[in-house]
Amino acid sequence: MDPVVVLVFMLTCLVLLSFWRQSSERRNLPPGPTPLPLIGNFLQIDVKNISQSLTKFSKVYGPVFTLYLGMKPTVVLHGYEAVKEALIDHGEMFAGRGSFPMAERLNKGLGIIFSNGSRWKETRCFTVMTLRNLGMGKRSIEDRVQEEAQCLVEELRKTNGSPCDPTFILGCAPCNVICSIIFQNRFDYKDKYFLDFLKKLNENFRILSSPWLQSIHNQQSELSLENLTITVSDLFAAGTETTSTMLRYALLLLLKHPHVTAKVQEEIDQVVGRDRSPSMQDRSHMPYTDDTVHEVQRVIKLVPTNMPHAVTNDIKFRDYYIPKGTMVITSLTSVLLDSKEFPNPEVFDPGHFLDKDGNFKKSDYFVPFSIGKRMCAGEGLAHMELFLFLTTILQNFKLKSLVQPKDIDTTPALNGFGSLPPPYKLCFIPV
């Protein structure tokens, strides 16, 4: 038989098999767009803005729907109610980590971010306990963040008010905080090995956020040396790039909205003054600043579609049957941009977290670090760093843009796994 005929026959069988499998699987799964054989719904997704694609699908199929990323189904949860119901009300059942091929190749299912089952539970428990023993959540950590904030200010002074790209300077500060916790030591901002390490962290986060990536043991204890090594790597990656990226985006938004910057600096002058460093105790007396820090995190949507989850057992969810191991995407963007909770949600408006009396108000819809059992273990540290680093910078410098505020583009440069700000330069003018 002609080899070409054999090849065509085999491909046809493969396509028909794929179509049959998808049809049988879809009977009890949530509704969704009809997938193509082999490639699923990829052609219907804008890989440059996945969150926007999910929002369009939700308007047609509702808050719980199914997409095929290739041949496997993925259940998507859109909106606060669906996300909360899964990650809080059925937290244990949705606590699995979904497939992340690149990370699986690199981390081998180890560490705290991409592990599963008993390995994840034991690793997370050990990590949280160890970080607490090293000072996480205690006054000593705030002291380290304040010290690092002053080091950051001194480094920014060296720019002498000249235009600079703040990427690596802002990356040094949160990375040094993690170093001080894990190694009990910080590094000079010009240290060659330290800067090489930061470059690798930054590049890894950029690769994870590219649209192309989105289209892809000790028997007695899980705490093997290899697992602990990867866990430390996870802590650096999560603890450095998240805060660094938020700081870069925060400064860009403050350049875009100088009236907000002026009000924050006015509040800093009134509450903190110039003779001492800002502290976390000041936050309760600085509602507008606290509000602005929250609004930055809300509007940038750092991890738009969250880390992929997976159901740990077969589950009936809202009258749909979701088989064990099915990947689940929870759209954090849909919660952070909920128009019922945040009027004009696309607009950067610090008033979103203020009540009618000008006091700071909490919101259950504020979920930049996810919710439930797999929420970020370092959320508290990230909030502390963002508040103290930003207030210390604004206490010591005026921010000067190289272009008019109206011409500043805050559209993410990449919007895959993470939402990265476009590159920009600014001047730090000492006050």
TrEMBL record:
<dbReference type="Pfam" id="PF00067">
    <property type="entry name" value="p450"/>
</dbReference>
<keyword id="KW-0732">Signal</keyword>
<feature type="binding site" description="axial binding residue">
    <location>
        <position position="376"/>
    </location>
    <ligand>
        <name>heme</name>
    </ligand>
</feature>
<dbReference type="InterPro" id="IPR001128">
    <property type="entry name" value="Cyt_P450"/>
</dbReference>
<keyword id="KW-0256">Endoplasmic reticulum</keyword>
<dbReference type="GO" id="GO:0020037">
    <property type="term" value="F:heme binding"/>
</dbReference>
<keyword id="KW-0560">Oxidoreductase</keyword>
<protein>
    <recommendedName>
        <fullName>unspecific monooxygenase</fullName>
        <ecNumber>1.14.14.1</ecNumber>
    </recommendedName>
</protein>
<dbReference type="InterPro" id="IPR050182">
    <property type="entry name" value="Cytochrome_P450_fam2"/>
</dbReference>
<dbReference type="GO" id="GO:0005789">
    <property type="term" value="C:endoplasmic reticulum membrane"/>
</dbReference>
<dbReference type="GO" id="GO:0006082">
    <property type="term" value="P:organic acid metabolic process"/>
</dbReference>
<keyword id="KW-0349">Heme</keyword>
<keyword id="KW-0479">Metal-binding</keyword>
<dbReference type="GO" id="GO:0005506">
    <property type="term" value="F:iron ion binding"/>
</dbReference>
<dbReference type="GO" id="GO:0006805">
    <property type="term" value="P:xenobiotic metabolic process"/>
</dbReference>
<dbReference type="GO" id="GO:0016712">
    <property type="term" value="F:oxidoreductase activity, acting on paired donors, with incorporation or reduction of molecular oxygen, reduced flavin or flavoprotein as one donor, and incorporation of one atom of oxygen"/>
</dbReference>
<dbReference type="InterPro" id="IPR017972">
    <property type="entry name" value="Cyt_P450_CS"/>
</dbReference>
<comment type="similarity">
    <text>Belongs to the cytochrome P450 family.</text>
</comment>
<keyword id="KW-0472">Membrane</keyword>
<keyword id="KW-0503">Monooxygenase</keyword>
<keyword id="KW-0492">Microsome</keyword>
<feature type="signal peptide">
    <location>
        <begin position="1"/>
        <end position="25"/>
    </location>
</feature>
<keyword id="KW-0408">Iron</keyword>
<dbReference type="InterPro" id="IPR002401">
    <property type="entry name" value="Cyt_P450_E_grp-I"/>
</dbReference>
<dbReference type="InterPro" id="IPR036396">
    <property type="entry name" value="Cyt_P450_sf"/>
</dbReference>
